User: What shape does this take?
Amino acid sequence: MRLSTRIGRFRFDRALIALLVLGALGLAVRGWLQDHPEHNPWAPLDLDDPPGWATQRKLAALRSDPAECRAVLERSGVAFAALDPVGEGECRRDDRTVLSDAPLSPRRPATSCAVAAGLELWLRRAVEPAAREILGSPVARIEHFGAYSCRRIYGRDSGAWSEHATGNAIDIAAFVLEDGRRISVVGDWDGEGEDAAFLHRVRDGACDVFGTVLSPDYNAAHADHFHLDQEARGFGGVCR
Assistant: This one.
């Protein structure tokens, strides 16, 4: 056999082996992603899945797709009510969603569906585990300052509109445990005990599911609450 023929066949065989290896690797990756939907960017989001590489990207996509967001809530077994649109102009709320079983007080507010999905995941993955592990008691009630307020940021007469203007935000003020203890942002954030540790843990956990998380570390205007919203602010969002 001529040398050039042998070289050509060797190159062909090597290319074929490489293709077979790549094919096998692709099948292995596909199978692994099917078994781990939390890492699969093409798998539908399910809030029952553990958090993974693709979770934040899927959550972010819900901001502009209320129909898919509500499908996620249904898929995840979350009880909710979809309300009719209300309002006008910058305060028009086309996407109003209420979590039927969320332990929010004094009432369950209507938020955007993306905020509702974030709240549900935050409760499951951050708030409830932290309460049991750090405080030794489940959370019975979460006190809030509201979700909807037709205003600009900080109530100014001009400037950007607040995410509260469309219900795409909620302000969390305190957590009441089943054993009766109350942990508030204004009273316990700067402490050194378990109450402060709990608040810092749940603030950090919120950063995994919300586009913006503002706490007392951000400025004095947030000394008494956590501001959680689903505005897209670029990769990584704001967490402070």
Observations:
- The longest strand covers residues 169-177.
- Strands lie at 80-83, 96-99, 104-105, 139-146, 169-177, 182-184, 212-214, 226-229, 238-239.
- The mean pLDDT is 89.
- The two ends are 71 Å apart (CA to CA).
